[in-house]
Amino acid sequence: MKNLEKSLKFKMQIPGPGKVM
To answer: Where do the record's region annotations for Disordered lie (predicted)?
Structure first.
């Protein structure tokens, strides 16, 4: 399940609809 970690890091790096601030 390394894909999930990569996806999480990606979401953290680039702010998207998943991370609303």
So the answer is: 1-21
Nearest to 12 by CA among 2, 21, 1: 21
Distance (Å, rounded) from C-alpha 8 to C-alpha 3? 9
Is there a contact between 7 and 14 (Cβ–Cβ < 8 Å)?
Answer: no
Per-residue H/E/C for the chain: CHHHHHHHHHHHHCCCCCCCC
The pLDDT tens digits for 1-21 are 588 888 777 777 766 666 555
Handedness of CA 17, 21, 15, 5 (dihedral sign): negative
